[in-house]
Amino acid sequence: MELYPHLFEPLYIKGLRYRNRIWGSPTAMAMSFLSPEGFLRNEGIEHFRTRALGGAAVVTLGESAVDFEHGAGHYHSNTLCDPRALPQLTAMSDAIHQAGAVASLEISHAGKWALPQVNGGRNPFAPSAEDLPNGVHVDAMTEEDMDRVADNFAEACRFLQNAGFRMCLVHGAHTWLLGQFLSPLENRRNDKYGGSLENRARFPLMVLDRIRKRVGKDFVIEYRVNGTEGVPGGFDLPESIEFVKMLEDYVDLVHVSRGTRGVLRTRVEMHPSTFMPEAPNVYMTEAMKKAGVRTPLILVGNISSPETAERILAEGKADCIAMARALISDPEWANKARHGKNDDIRPCIKCFNCLDEKNGRIFGGGITSFTQDVVKRYACSTNPRLGIEHVLVPPALEKKRVCIIGGGPAGMQAAITAAERGHDVMLFEKCGQLGGQLVFSEYVSFKKPLRDFKNYLIHRIGKLGVQVFLNTEASPEMFRRHKPDALIAAVGAAPFIPPIPGANLPCVMGAARACMRPEQTGKRVIVIGGGDTGCETALHLAEHGREVLILEMDDVLARRTGYTHRIALMDKVEREVESMTGVTCTAIRQDGVEIEGTRGKQFLNADTVVLCIGSRARRDLADSFRSVAPEFRIAGDADIAKNVRQAIRQGYDAACRL
Tell me, what CATH number does 417's domain have? Predict the structure, then answer.
């Protein structure tokens, strides 16, 4: 009996059989996947082939520009106009189709957000003229411009058709060009292309009509639309419903998303954050269904569990489910769900590393928009093989006894990878449970995705038969008795205690204790350190009714936090806790802290002080085990204090080198 009958029910459209209702959403192309000319490399083909082998019905290549004179919004994009790109693009569609999925590709025009430096220095154009805050002038499109762009969309689809694609996704959401025409805020024209919804929809429908005439009736056209822009006066659900009804004669499938590129806070609505519930956009597809929309609707946005996906489909609130980050974390998501192996699904932790790392977007690095570093690499906190799918990791030629010290993320991943390769693995953890610094996620409401990942790692260790020794303080002498062939030291990092007078007072605690034992904090709490750990600890304590103040030496909070996660984090922090930046804590007293900043010296009352100022690698401890095995590796925070992504990748790499 099928566990999820609605999720794995085939769908038939224009002679195409989709094996289930799981759509692989478009994900941007890493630079390693494309040549400088925009031609696909074998690395990219293998990446998307892996996703197809994982069981999704559709695998969609990421956003590609149709116009390199005025419309490219990225430095790196598939070329859809040069015949030299056809062989590899054809190889891509063949690879996806041979794996049982249907190949698609998202095409777009950036409109006002096009980059002059990518478009030969030419100004971008859009429905209406304006000057952007960065000094770029945007020209208003003429009817001749519209005619040419419509042809560009049509020719791009014809190019894909020649490369073996039988469907294409037209990006009309997130206020790219087609969405700009629909938006009352962006489209201020007073001709037949502006004003009423019918007029604002005229150009997007022209584009779709031009595509259909170019590719014929059997080519499947998908369209991504905003259910809402999420800003006052913008394109909203009632108009979206009417527009989707207009699409019925032009497209075969509609993806429903939300958010606008022009308003930062809606970026985390395009890509729902850890602070948002699962499937936050389902109310939009449900409303469209109730309004009588007949075109199959694909729900976009943070659907992570098979149970949620099945429920949405069973209740008739959508026809298909689009997934991006879930399939980045685990390309085998569909296969595992179909066979009831939900505990084996590697979960996404909603950290946005996949988005921010490949876009070079780290707030503190000063990179706050698409730059020449855009899509430089893929990075996933939970999937260490992302972007290197073409690199095979063979089974071990010789079975070794591998001892791993430390049951945090690096140690657990090292144990999993070593066991998968066929080694005999023993994992030693000094505490009474596995998880390391992930254990705190058990206590923080908005860290459920991280908690799920911790539990996944523990599940895999048990399933692979790794021998686990808890409450075991490792020592070189102990391992000389075990006589391992290889040892991986993943001993983690220790919280940094600053040389501040009073740092050892009873009223002072670290972030881990504050998160796990919030009842031990007083009513008024000062958090010293405004990085992401400090901000998240403050939010957790605020949820428990504490009055929280964050103190940060820097002039901004969370400077080194990934760009997109920082947007979500700062939105919460600004609403729920207080903060002071540009201040230094000079002393801690039992009743508060002394600080110094631009306003001079101050004393701030507090019942509890929480230190969130980083960790220090335990390199000396790790090095003490160097001589106990012929092979020795260091992984995770024991080397340099890092984040989850780096810990997982280091644990994986260490085990691959055995």
Answer: 3.40.50.720
pLDDT one-digit tens code per residue, 335-356: 999 999 999 999 999 999 888 7
Same domain, 417 and 544: no
- Cα-Cα end-to-end distance for the chain: 42
Cα atoms in the Cβ-side hemisphere of radius 13 Å centred on 165: 29
Q: Cα separation of 197 and 44, whole Å?
A: 40
User: What gap in Å lies between CA 634 and CA 622, rounded to an integer?
Assistant: 7
Determine phi and psi for 609, rounding to 5 degrees. -120, 130
Could you tell me where the beta strands, DSSP code E, fall in 309-392? 320-323
For residue 248, the one-letter residue type is E
What separation in angstroms does the CA of 195 have from each of 172, 399, 540, 552?
18, 71, 46, 48
Backbone angles phi, psi at 53, to 5 degrees: -60, -25
Which class for 287: exposed (0-12), middle (13-18), buried (19 or more C-beta within 10 A)?
middle
Strands (E) in 390-477, as ranges, are: 401-405, 424-428, 467-469
- Does the pLDDT value for residue 372 go beyond 70? no
Domain boundary residue among 289, 323, 353? 353
* In contact, 96 and 102? CB cutoff 8 Å: yes
The whole-angstrom separation of Cα 328 and Cα 378 is 10
Q: What is the mean pLDDT of residues 86-90?
A: 97
Q: Identify the CA nearest to 330 among candidates 342, 345, 308.
A: 345
Burial of 69: CB neighbours in 10 Å, binned 0-12, 13-18, 19+ = middle
How far apart CA 251 and CA 243 sit, in angstroms, is 12
| Shared-domain flag, residues 130 and 279 | yes
Task: List all residues 6 or more positions away from 54 whose beta carbon is below 8 Å from its beta carbon.
Answer: 327, 330, 331, 332, 333, 334, 335
Total residue count of the chain as it appears in this document: 658
In angstroms, rounded to a whole number, what is the distance separating the alpha carbons of residues 304 and 346? Answer: 10
Interior/surface letters 495-526, b for 16+ CB within 10 angstroms, e for the rest? beeeebebeeeebbbbbbbbbeebeebeebbb
Alpha-carbon distance of 89 to 79, in angstroms, equals 9
Summarize pLDDT for 296-335 with one digit per residue, the tens: 999 999 999 999 999 999 999 999 999 999 999 999 999 9
Nearest alpha carbon to residue 227 among 153, 324, 301: 301
> In Å, how far from its chain's centre is CA 444?
20
Structural domains counted in the chain: 3
Give this prediction's pTM: 0.94
Q: Which residues pair with 405 in a beta bridge?
A: 428, 489
The H or E element containing residue 257 is strand 253-258
The answer on 144 and 273 residing in a single domain is yes
